[in-house]
Structures are given as C-alpha cells and as structure tokens.
Amino acid sequence: MPSTPESLLDLVPVVPVVVVEDVAHAVPLARALVAGGLPVIELTLRTPVALEAIRAIAAEVPEITLGAGTVTTPQQAKEAAAAGATFLVSPGATPRLLDGMLETGLPFLPGTATVSEVLAVLEAGISEMKFFPAEASGGAPYLKSISSPVAGARFCPTGGITAASAPSYLSLPNVGCVGGSWLTPADALAAGDWARVESLAREAAALR
Ligand code: 3PG
What DSSP line would sit under 87-135, residue for residue? Predict the structure, then answer.
C-alpha cells in the first residue's frame, strides 16, 4: 500500500502532471518517472481510462506517490481515493469540492488563482494549494507580489510552466514545487519512448 505524504509541496521540485490516453502506458511511464528521480505522479482525471490507470500504478508501482489531478467534483474525489490515489489536486476550490476532498481523508491541493480564493482556502484551514493556471494568471511575478500580504499560503504553481520557467517559481519563498506536463509529452507516450520521459524527469529533478 503506498504511503500518504505529509507535505505534498516538499516531495520533489516538479510534480509530473500526466494525461493517460492508453492504460497500457500508465505503468511504464510511472516507472520511467521513478527511474528519473521523480517518484511522484499527478494522474489527471481527464480521460476515460484515468481511474484504471491509477489502479494499475497503485498495484504495480507502489514506490511512487500517486495522486489524482483535475478533480472537479466530490464524486471524483471519492472515486480517485477508492482507486488508490494518495493525494488529490483540483483546478479550483468551491466549498462543496473542498468538503468532498476533505471527506476522503487524503491530503490535497485545491486550485486557486486570486487573492480572495487563496484567503477562502486559508479560512478552510488549508495552507498548501495549487496556483492555476499559473502562467495565464500572472506567473511568478504574481506569486512574488502576494508572498508578503498573504504570507500563510504555499503554492504548487501549474499551468504553462516549462523547464525554462520553473526556476523562477522555485526561487520564491511561497513556492514548494511546480507542476507540469512537459515531462510526459503525448508523442513520447504514444511512441512508448520511456527513455525520453526518464531523461526529462532527471532534468526536472535537478531543478532545485
Ligand atoms: C494541470 O492540470 O495542472 C495543467 O493542465 C498542467 O499544465 P501544463 O499542461 O500547462 O503543464
């Protein structure tokens, strides 16, 4: 049984955000991330095979910290937890969704993009969150601007971040890690090019 992490933001510098179209890709790509030094995966609930992919990784790659991303309803939170996810990530944070994620008992990163959303999540007793969509919402300069006025919050910015832009986020005091899909490009997955995924993971693991 995979263990539940204490702080999601301190595990790795870059959380791989993954869209799996073919369930057969799930296990080899998870192994490639582990081999590259990034033993964390956020598997997004954006495809019909996502829950099956989570079940496969939970069973066959227990050494990876396995999360479900793009959680947008309480029902999805419940299903992801039942499939074996050990953390949850959502793109936004309605009160109902926050309750649904809290009910799973799993750690989670609710999505925020504005100061009021950050304050609402802090009011709910949660200090670690996703900043999404990071680049479109003002990027690293935005997070830098709010680091002093909203000092209690720590972020995993995600959305439009690349290997080139990640360091500008990682140098901020209110950023623990970033998330990104650049480590698992669709063409590499389609070609079964796990060596490329491993090499992209290795580069990302060295970013901090
Ligand atoms: C997410 O779900 O967090 C984002 O879609 C990932 O963003 P990226 O594909 O721009 O890295």
Answer: EEE-SS--HHHHHHHHHHT--EE-EE-SHHHHHHHHHTT--EEEETTTT
With contact defined as beta carbons under 8 Å apart, do 156 and 109 qualify?
A: yes
CB atoms within 10 A of CB 27: 15
Q: What is the pLDDT of residue 208?
A: 81
Closest residue CA from atom 6 of ligand 1:
159
Classify residue 18: in a domain, yes or no: yes
Residue at 103 is within a domain: yes
Containing domain of residue 161, as a range?
A: 12-205
Average of per-residue pLDDT across 69-93: 98
Question: Is the pLDDT confidence value at 24 over 70?
Answer: yes
The Cβ of residue 96 has, within 10 Å, a number of other Cβ atoms equal to: 10
> What CATH code is carried by the domain that includes residue 166?
3.20.20.70
Number of domains in the chain: 1
| Closest C-alpha to ligand 1, atom 9 | 181
The answer to whether residue 5 sits within a structural domain is no
Q: What is the mean pLDDT of residues 112-140?
A: 97
Residue 22 lies in a domain: yes
Beta strands in the chain (DSSP E): 14-18, 40-44, 65-69, 87-89, 108-109, 111-112, 128-131, 154-157, 178-180
Q: For residue 148, report the phi and psi dihedrals to the nearest 5 degrees.
A: -85, -50
Q: Is 42 a catalytic residue?
A: yes
- With the most atoms of ligand 1 within 8 angstroms of its CB, the residue from 46, 47, 156, 158 to mutate is 158
